[in-house]
Amino acid sequence: MKRLAGSTLFRTTLYAAALGATSAFALAGVASTANASARLAIASSAHTVPRTLATSTPSMQGNVVAIAATSSNGLLFASSTGSVAADGSAVTAGDAYTIGHTGLSGSNPISAPVVGMAALPGGGGYYLATASGSVYNFGAAPSHGDTYTYGITGLSGAKPLNAPIVAMATTPHGNGYWLVAADGGVFNFGSAKFYGSTYTYGITGLGGTRPLNAPIVAMVPTPDGKGYWLIAKDGGVFDFGDAKFYGSTYTYGITGLHGNRPLAAPIVGAAASPNGGGYYLVAADGGVFDFGDAHFAGSAYSIGYTGLHGSNPLPSPVSGIAPDPNGNGYWAITKSGKLLAFGSAATLPSVSTSPVTPAPTPSQNALKNPTSNIKGTYNQACFDANMAAKQTDTPACLQAALVSLNAGRASEGLPNVKLPSNFDSLSRIDQLFILINEERVVRGLPPIYGIASALQGDALTGAQNNADPVLTANIPSDPYGNYASIYAFNYSTIADVFDWMYDDGYGGSNYDCTTPTSSGCWGHRDNILSTTQSVGSIVMGVASVNTNFAASTGTYMEKDAAIFVPILTSDLSQMTYLYTWAQAVADGA
Question: Does one domain contain both 491 and 368?
Fold first, then answer.
């Protein structure tokens, strides 16, 4: 009585095109070359992830590596794994996890640890930068490129960075940004202008005949964006453009990281005073150094801590500092999330950090196709319920099909499917999206990002024509027309997913599997579990239409179809979505 119609267009790995980029720019710290190279994606969730107001205790995964102020009582934090948390009036607009990445490990890791964060003035969006030079933009923050735009190949490859990226900063109006590397190389994007690098001073990076005394760790722009300071780990300060030099830790008689009067701990961050007439440097032990008109409002020592050692040490080293935009104060954040407020800076909750949970690795057995079909036990229950209600997807039918789906998962050593509490009330397309992603995520595969509005027409045409959807929509960054599609009709969304995953072989409900060796056997399952190149994501279209009363089966059924298209992660923001995995997770998936 249950059956699957249609065929799969291909069953192999989905490939997202890698865009080549040529560069004639010779930036400080990078050997110039015009050779094209594959560009890693700039991930974006702009205008797709609902913003979340900060809770009383913001939380995130991993150690805090960056802090950014959005207002006089709003802060954002970033961890090395790409997690983002908000405090006070600040709001989040997504992070690396909400766009399908799995931290620093797992099936879809970010390219390198996050090292920097920059927020749009006044909030509304922000950026994350990784050590390899990738930039991820969220909310209203527009993408302007990353080091791969210049043809640089990250930390390895044919044209690698001379040194890892360590920090980033935005222009005053948020229409551009800079990245700075540990060797003092500066990369400008959008409206951000290049005003020089440590190489401008004749310094030869981290090596050579005239190397830096210590690596660069921070970058601070002037209020008008026409200059910036670069800060070194030993407290050295380098000024460019209209940035004025107001001193360094050496001004205080400190002898850097060594000598007869060294820093007690290395410098880890810096911030400008509100009018740009001075700046602060913060050390890992919570020590704060003020220069120019920057007002000293205290340090970790002034509130009773004894640095990184002693009788009352900090819980972990300080990792950054952010100024109060409207006053004479600042915040410092430790790696473990302890927030310290000084002067006019509002007292806000500390961040609750949790150890990094390794992303699940794909189970080889769970990724392999089953050796035989698993027969569902839901036919009669669905038949009776649907006939009585004269509709599909009755609660009784969904529950009966869920028993079969969980039995199939158990046969592969997988846990029961996790569904939102409101699953029964969700639209059928949202149900299918969640169910398909649940089959992917439990096997360690990255989730499909979202239901793309542009693909809905193709999906609907497939469902109406009783066939696998055909891609006709114009999708960004899919120049080769790669896609996969599936179609089925059944009593409920869960029943269709069960058939696609566990009854797709010879003798099952797959019309394309007419012999034990037919190429179409397990093709629908293969398409659901498709993967992309590391630079890509997958978006989908999905449709579900009623057959009303189907004479051929004697009951009420539905026709479900889906189409999967690879897309560069950097192009996700160019599309609109009806529902995203981030929303599904928020709903309880």
Answer: yes
